[in-house]
């Protein structure tokens, strides 16, 4: 009987057929784009889709890029255990979209960059660009390996799919359509995967509604279980999720992910006009709202079904990440092919993230490390290098997935580090975009101080996890489980951090319940503020930047903030305005040549 615990069915033949079919279609899109675009095999075509993409497919790709298998599996489990507070991230998505579209998109689009980190050299110095790129490559390779491993581990234990076979197959499929098709293949494949992910959520909610007697019953059960108390206005920064931590901290965290992450920047600058680029972020916002709403409601559906028999407390699953796959096999096993659709949804999320990461890693490696050194490479050589690097980074990510299998609970630690690094980097960009007095010394020192602080609080919080008082887990019971022997009790499953770096010690230092208990959502905000404040102070102490040697192209401008109806006017001003010399020439950035920006502007104006 559904919802009463015990073992569940595994994959049927039809499930394997559906799963394999969807994955093969994804690879087929890459091959189709490869053969279709053979005559346009330039580096710009490979890395930026020839800058001819339109808003809607790019928007769906932006949404799919960070809606990984971890999101598909983890968000419903979050909603099941902690309630619907995660839905408040919808406000953060709106703020993030506005900041990214109105501040960052015009800047990157105007400069015509391929690597987001080119800006750091133009504004500060080449060493800062190299440091920023290196941080991105390390975090993205590790993050991508873990994105491959996490859903594979959970689904392997629930469905019986071979873990290592799935790991290698996932990486190989991504390598194929990244290598042969480039960014255009990645974007169109993401569109397909986004549809599959949403279909997986809808299937679970629809079946749950039938079993429970309607969506109203699910909503009532969630309310009785305390899962609908989402708006907690407590200003305490130590509480894991409150309205303020999600709206304020979450907005900065997602801005760091969307505004300066190469995987995302590469997408919106692939649009054929600035209007399409901005629109893609606003349409992406709607996509994020739909995704998080369906994911949270899937978690509430899971609670309605398991309100009397928690599979985690009952020992049916070992980790929270296995709850949602367990639910799928419990309620959908009678429908051949539907569990296969769900697994394909989870892996579609993984494939989109992995393919995005591989393509972005290739872009920053070529633009930031190879082309500045080997300037005489032919177009054909660069194209072969792009494909070779796609294979290389795909292999690295598969290797990192293997390393992740040895890390155990460090799995989520890498995801936290991903956020910790993005905060100081965002602070560095904002420092350069808004404060003309900041120089390269201030930028470098500010970023280092911000990074040290975020890593300190983040790693400390994993060694000494926050108490249940701060994480607020909701009550669960095993009273209705059929196979529970001698158990009939209600429990609050304590939230132990899935990021524990070491066995939880008996001794807790004074900082454990204060500094180390800071909500993870605030890590990026801490990094941004620390980087900006310390960067400004150091810049002032070291003499600042000379106002008469600044390139206005490198700063936020008033007409950047005007949306779609003024796009044509903005394009005309871009074409007629001649950029001035680079900011802080000489000691601050001696290697810069004005022709670098001019050539990018000429290239971009030709496209427009």
UniProtKB/TrEMBL annotation:
<protein>
    <submittedName>
        <fullName>Sodium-coupled monocarboxylate transporter 1</fullName>
    </submittedName>
</protein>
<feature type="transmembrane region" description="Helical">
    <location>
        <begin position="16"/>
        <end position="35"/>
    </location>
</feature>
<keyword id="KW-1133">Transmembrane helix</keyword>
<feature type="transmembrane region" description="Helical">
    <location>
        <begin position="520"/>
        <end position="541"/>
    </location>
</feature>
<feature type="transmembrane region" description="Helical">
    <location>
        <begin position="281"/>
        <end position="306"/>
    </location>
</feature>
<dbReference type="GO" id="GO:0015730">
    <property type="term" value="P:propanoate transmembrane transport"/>
</dbReference>
<feature type="transmembrane region" description="Helical">
    <location>
        <begin position="443"/>
        <end position="464"/>
    </location>
</feature>
<keyword id="KW-1003">Cell membrane</keyword>
<feature type="transmembrane region" description="Helical">
    <location>
        <begin position="410"/>
        <end position="431"/>
    </location>
</feature>
<dbReference type="InterPro" id="IPR038377">
    <property type="entry name" value="Na/Glc_symporter_sf"/>
</dbReference>
<feature type="transmembrane region" description="Helical">
    <location>
        <begin position="326"/>
        <end position="347"/>
    </location>
</feature>
<dbReference type="GO" id="GO:0070062">
    <property type="term" value="C:extracellular exosome"/>
</dbReference>
<feature type="transmembrane region" description="Helical">
    <location>
        <begin position="86"/>
        <end position="109"/>
    </location>
</feature>
<feature type="transmembrane region" description="Helical">
    <location>
        <begin position="384"/>
        <end position="404"/>
    </location>
</feature>
<feature type="transmembrane region" description="Helical">
    <location>
        <begin position="195"/>
        <end position="215"/>
    </location>
</feature>
<keyword id="KW-0472">Membrane</keyword>
<dbReference type="Pfam" id="PF00474">
    <property type="entry name" value="SSF"/>
</dbReference>
<dbReference type="InterPro" id="IPR001734">
    <property type="entry name" value="Na/solute_symporter"/>
</dbReference>
<dbReference type="GO" id="GO:0005886">
    <property type="term" value="C:plasma membrane"/>
</dbReference>
<feature type="transmembrane region" description="Helical">
    <location>
        <begin position="130"/>
        <end position="151"/>
    </location>
</feature>
<keyword id="KW-0739">Sodium transport</keyword>
<comment type="similarity">
    <text>Belongs to the sodium:solute symporter (SSF) (TC 2.A.21) family.</text>
</comment>
<keyword id="KW-0915">Sodium</keyword>
<feature type="transmembrane region" description="Helical">
    <location>
        <begin position="242"/>
        <end position="260"/>
    </location>
</feature>
<keyword id="KW-0406">Ion transport</keyword>
<dbReference type="InterPro" id="IPR051163">
    <property type="entry name" value="Sodium:Solute_Symporter_SSF"/>
</dbReference>
<keyword id="KW-0812">Transmembrane</keyword>
<feature type="transmembrane region" description="Helical">
    <location>
        <begin position="55"/>
        <end position="74"/>
    </location>
</feature>
<dbReference type="GO" id="GO:0005343">
    <property type="term" value="F:organic acid:sodium symporter activity"/>
</dbReference>
<keyword id="KW-0813">Transport</keyword>
<feature type="transmembrane region" description="Helical">
    <location>
        <begin position="163"/>
        <end position="183"/>
    </location>
</feature>
């Amino acid at each position: 009987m559904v919802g009463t615990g015990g073992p569940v069915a595994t994959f049927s033949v039809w499930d394997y057929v559906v799963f394999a079919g969807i994955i093969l279609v994804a690879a087929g899109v890459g091959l189709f784009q490869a053969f279709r675009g053979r005559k346009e095999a330039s580096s710009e075509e490979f890395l930026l889709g020839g800058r001819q993409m339109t808003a809607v497919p790019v928007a769906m790709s932006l949404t799919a890029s960070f809606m990984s298998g971890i999101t598909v599996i983890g968000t419903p489990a979050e909603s099941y255990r902690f309630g619907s507070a995660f839905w408040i991230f919808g406000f953060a998505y709106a703020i993030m979209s506005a900041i990214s579209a109105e501040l960052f998109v015009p800047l990157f689009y105007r400069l015509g960059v391929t690597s987001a980190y080119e800006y750091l050299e133009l504004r500060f110095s080449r060493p800062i660009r190299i440091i920023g790129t290196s941080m991105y490559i390390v975090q993205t390779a590790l993050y991508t390996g873990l994105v491959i491993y996490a859903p594979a581990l959970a689904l392997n234990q629930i469905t019986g799919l071979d873990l290592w076979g799935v790991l290698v197959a996932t990486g190989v499929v991504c390598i194929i359509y990244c290598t042969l098709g480039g960014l255009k293949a990645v974007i169109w494949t993401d569109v397909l995967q986004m549809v599959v992910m949403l279909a997986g959520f809808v299937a679970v909610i629809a079946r749950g509604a039938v079993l429970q007697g309607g969506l109203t019953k699910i909503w009532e059960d969630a309310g009785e279980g305390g899962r609908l108390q989402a708006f907690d206005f407590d200003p305490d920064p130590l509480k894991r999720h409150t309205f303020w931590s999600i709206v304020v901290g979450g907005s900065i965290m997602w801005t760091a992910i969307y505004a300066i992450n190469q995987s995302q920047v590469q997408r919106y600058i692939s649009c054929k006009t600035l209007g399409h680029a901005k629109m893609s972020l606003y349409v992406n916002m709607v996509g994020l709202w739909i995704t998080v709403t369906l994911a949270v409601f899937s978690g509430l559906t899971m609670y309605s079904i398991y309100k009397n028999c928690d599979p985690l407390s009952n020992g049916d699953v070992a980790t929270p990440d296995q709850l949602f796959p367990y639910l799928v096999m419990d309620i959908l096993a009678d429908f051949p092919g539907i569990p296969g659709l769900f697994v394909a949804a989870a892996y579609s999320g993984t494939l989109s993230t992995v393919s995005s990461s591989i393509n972005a890693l290739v872009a920053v490696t070529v633009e930031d490390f190879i082309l500045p050194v080997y300037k005489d490479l032919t177009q054909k050589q660069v194209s072969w290098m792009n494909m070779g690097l796609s294979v290389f980074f795909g292999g690295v990510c598969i290797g990192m997935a293997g390393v992740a299998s040895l890390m155990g609970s460090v799995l989520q630690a890498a995801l936290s580090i991903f956020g910790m690094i993005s905060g100081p980097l965002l602070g560095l960009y904002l420092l350069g975009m808004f404060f003309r007095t900041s120089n390269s010394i201030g930028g470098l020192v500010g970023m280092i101080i911000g990074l040290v602080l975020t890593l300190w609080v983040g790693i400390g919080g994993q060694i000494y996890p926050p108490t249940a008082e701060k994480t607020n887990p909701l009550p669960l019971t095993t009273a209705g489980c059929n196979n529970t022997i001698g158990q009939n009790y209600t429990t609050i499953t304590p939230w132990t951090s899935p990021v524990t770096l070491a066995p939880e010690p008996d001794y807790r230092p004074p900082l454990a319940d204060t500094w180390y208990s800071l909500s993870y959502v605030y890590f990026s905000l801490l990094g941004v503020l620390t980087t900006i404040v310390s960067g400004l102070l150091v810049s002032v102490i070291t003499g600042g930047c000379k106002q008469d040697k600044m390139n206005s192209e490198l700063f936020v401008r008033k007409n950047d903030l005007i949306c779609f109806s003024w796009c044509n006017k903005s394009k005309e001003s871009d074409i007629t305005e001649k950029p001035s010399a680079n900011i802080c020439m000489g000691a601050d950035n001696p290697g810069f040549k004005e022709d670098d920006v001019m050539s990018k502007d000429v290239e971009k104006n030709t496209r427009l």
